[in-house]
Design brief:
Largest sheet: 4 strands, antiparallel
Order of helices and strands: HEEEEHHH
Radius of gyration: 13 Å
Strand content: 35-45%
Distance between the termini: 27 Å
Structural class: alpha+beta
Number of helices: 4
Strand order of the largest sheet: 1-2-3-4
Oligomer: single chain
Length: 95
């Protein structure tokens, strides 16, 4: 997905407070689920969830900020998805 320069710039001002990942079975399909608490540029804290499937390619992300409700990508999601662990996870790739 192509992300605007505005979103990329705002993502640089976000701080990831907590981040965890786990392997989860949903409808007989294995997903890497990443949960992160992200502090935005306005000092509010948002929850970002990222789901990735290696098998079917069904991937989606969500954030509880208002911007995510009206667009496909907010700066908080991009801050999490831009991290190296999201493209290669020890838990996900080695099982």
């Amino acid at each position: 997905m192509k992300v605007s320069a505005h979103i990329r710039n705002k993502a640089e001002k976000c701080t990831i407070i907590n981040i965890e990942n786990a392997k989860v079975l949903i409808n007989d399909e294995v997903y890497l689920v990443i949960a992160a608490d992200v502090q935005g540029s306005n000092d509010k804290i948002y929850r970002v969830l990222v789901y990735r499937s290696k098998e079917s390619g069904r991937d989606w992300s969500s954030c509880n900020c208002m911007g995510c409700q009206f667009t496909h990508m907010c700066s908080h999601i991009y801050a999490v998805e831009d991290r190296p662990h999201n493209t290669k996870s020890v838990i996900y790739d080695n099982d």
